[in-house]
Write a structure and sequence with these properties.
The complex is a heterodimer of chains A (309) and B (290).
Chain A: H1 2-19, H2 30-37, E1 39-43, E2 47-48, E3 52-54, E4 71-72, E5 76-77, H3 79-91, E6 94-98, H4 102-106, E7 116-122, E8 131-147, E9 163-167, H5 171-177, E10 195-199, H6 202-210, E11 219-223, H7 224-232, E12 237-254, H8 262-277, H9 280-289, H10 295-299
Parallel strand pairs in A: 1-6, 1-7, 9-10, 9-11
Antiparallel strand pairs in A: 2-3, 3-5, 4-6, 7-12, 8-11, 8-12
Chain B: H1 2-7, H2 16-56, H3 61-72, H4 75-101, H5 105-119, H6 123-143, H7 147-151, H8 157-182, H9 186-194, H10 199-229, H11 241-252, H12 255-285
Classes of the chains: A alpha/beta (309), B mainly alpha (290).
Chain lengths: 309, 290
């Protein structure tokens, strides 16, 4: 009899496992469903500090509404996490986190496993085929950096015909080749005839530039925070002029979300605009990056994306 | 008889050959022990050598000491997923083996197809199909007006992981179970038939109790292999040991340190599991020792 009992127990356990996910959806829109549930399920890949990382010794919050396979904000930290918590607070719900691979997030078709990605995702035309983007919550400004010894360049336009380094296949590469497109922004190539030198990462390019003015490179085009970080690490570099373009980083929602996610995307956009207006995002940006990366994102014209056709 | 004679109190052994035999056994035991000690010394030497090499290569031992508890927290999840999966795989394998051995073409066809299909595809692909592929079926079912049924196809990461590992190991273990059952001599079956038992009774009362002794050590081996294969569920964002080591490493770019921690815990886990499996094997063999 014992063997039957064991087999029976196993089937029951399996059945429970499989039926645990049979939640019933009665709401008409995603927003209603989230408000009724009381939790906002956010996906984040904690592989990218300082945006999102794991907290050592982080304990699951008590009295949480998050499901057993979701994580509470106390177990993670970073700019994206704080922004998620701020968004959830404005909605009056609790932020819960799941951590799938980044490629699973950007690929869309989330099967309603999570509601939203707050993952510093750049708005690109390819991604817009699978995802709805909200108002961006911050930007990555792209700026030129030159050696501190240099005195002959005053603005990016002075770099005509010079050798400029950057990571291969990044937006910097595309910008210098004149092929970069960013939804919601007109891009003007301010440098005539740049000679692009590709590197595996931006940091390699910055290190080559630091060897001396014009020794291997005349300038590097990279993310402003990356360049500023290299300078604070002691590299003899300086920023040349203002950023030349902005990459807008926004929260994203799967287009295939059910029920209807449009009012949800609209609501998150309103919430992010509020967070821009009341200075919450600016304060977080200063805290994590020591820079104002948010103002340009608040001025972004979200309606221009024209996503709900 | 000689043993009984020896055990009689007050009578010293008179047979000089017994003393010689005992001396020989003691000598062999001693030699085995010395060999074990020497092998142990080689192991310790290899471990020290590896540590020295690592230390030469910008390896930070204090980082390991400071951050190993973070990886250790994932041990229970690794173990839990493996235990749940091996339990489900055992049930699957038992059913699969019955199918493989039955004379019913439908049962044999289904189980043979299952074993071939699952053993012929990588575990990672199976995980992706269950986690990313099945929801497409679910979506179709929901749009066709079966929301409850459709939801069943959208599994969470943990559910997908357990299902994939169970299906995968169930297929390998089907063959183990089949071999175990077939290893019981045909005479046993004939004897049981002559007592008037039907096929089901023979299987349950005669064949399986004996086959289990052969199968259980192999289940143990599969369990050990599964503990390591469970690392692959980390792609779905389950915070087991591999995931924790991988994601934490990126904070300070200490990949070597964090993966060495994870490797060490997997190794320890399998050593402990092998030892437990050995104990179990010896216990099962007890009844058959002469």
């Amino acid at each position: 009899m014992k063997k039957y009992t064991i087999a029976f127990t196993m089937f029951v356990v399996l059945g429970l496992l499989l039926s645990a996910c049979g939640g019933t959806a009665t709401a008409d829109t995603k927003l209603e469903e989230i408000l009724a549930r009381g939790t906002l399920i956010v996906s984040t890949d904690p592989a990218y500090p300082p945006q999102s990382e794991l907290v050592e010794g982080g304990k699951r919050a008590e009295n949480t509404k998050c499901a057993a396979d979701q994580h509470t904000a106390s177990e993670l930290s970073g700019f994206d996490i704080d922004v998620s918590v701020a968004i959830a607070e404005k909605l009056g719900v609790e932020a819960c986190f799941v951590t799938p691979d980044w490629t699973l997030i950007t690929g869309g078709n989330w099967a309603n496993r999570w509601d939203i990605s707050v993952g510093s995702m750049t708005i690109t035309p390819e991604r817009m085929e699978k995802l709805y983007f909200t108002q961006p919550y911050y930007t990555t400004p792209a700026a030129f950096f030159v050696h501190t010894d240099n005195t002959s360049y005053a603005q990016p336009g002075d770099l005509a015909g010079k050798t400029i380094g950057g990571c291969t296949g990044c937006t910097y590469d595309m910008y210098l080749a004149g092929t970069l497109q960013i939804p919601g922004e007109t891009i003007n190539l301010v440098v005539d005839d740049p000679q692009f030198m590709g590197y595996e990462t931006d940091l390699n390019a910055l290190q080559d530039l630091a060897l001396g003015d014009g020794m291997r490179l005349d300038a590097v085009l990279t993310a402003q925070p990356t360049g500023v970080g290299a300078i604070s690490d002691g590299l003899p570099l300086k920023q040349l002029g203002d950023p030349v373009y902005f990459e807008y980083l926004a929260a994203a929602v799967d287009i295939a979300t059910t029920p209807d996610p449009e009012s949800f995307v609209q609501k998150i956009t309103d919430v992010i605009l509020e967070l821009h207006a009341d200075g919450t995002l600016l304060q977080l940006s200063e805290q994590y990056y020591g820079l104002d990366l948010t103002t340009a994102a608040g001025e972004f014209d979200w309606e221009m994306l024209n996503q709900f056709k | 008889m000689a043993v009984e004679f020896l055990q009689t109190p007050g009578k010293p052994p008179e047979d000089p050959h017994i003393a010689m035999g005992q001396a020989l056994m003691a000598q062999q035991r001693k030699e085995r022990l010395i060999l074990m000690v020497r092998i142990g010394v080689v192991w310790v030497g290899l471990i020290i050598f590896l540590i020295i090499v690592l230390l030469q290569l910008d390896f930070d031992p204090s980082y390991v000491l400071a951050h190993y508890p973070f990886v250790l927290e994932g041990l229970l999840i690794t173990l839990g997923i493996s235990l749940a999966s091996i339990a489900a795989a055992t049930v699957l394998a038992l059913v699969g083996a019955m199918g493989r051995l039955s004379r019913n073409p439908l049962a044999q066809g289904i189980s043979g197809f299952y074993v071939s299909l699952v053993r012929g595809t990588p575990l990672l692909i199976q995980i992706y199909i269950i986690y990313l592929g099945l929801p497409q079926i679910g979506k179709t079912l929901i749009s066709m007006g079966h929301p409850q049924l459709g939801q069943l196809f959208v599994l969470t990461g943990v559910q997908s992981g357990i299902l994939a590992l169970s299906l995968n190991y169930g297929a390998y273990m089907t063959e183990i179970f089949r071999a175990g059952i077939q290893s019981i001599s045909h005479g046993q079956r004939e004897a049981a038939e002559s007592l008037g038992m039907n096929r089901w009774q023979i299987m349950r009362r005669v064949i399986l109790p004996q086959a289990v002794r052969i199968i259980i050590p192999d289940i143990g081996n599969q369990f050990i292999a599964m503990q390591k294969d469970s690392a692959q569920v980390s792609v779905m964002g389950i915070w087991e040991m591999t995931y924790r080591a991988n994601r934490f490493a990126r904070q300070d770019s200490k990949f070597m340190e964090m993966f060495v921690i994870a490797a060490a815990f997997y190794w320890l886990l399998t050593i402990v599991s092998s030892w437990l499996e050995g104990l179990l094997e010896r216990k099962l063999a007890h009844a058959y020792e002469r």
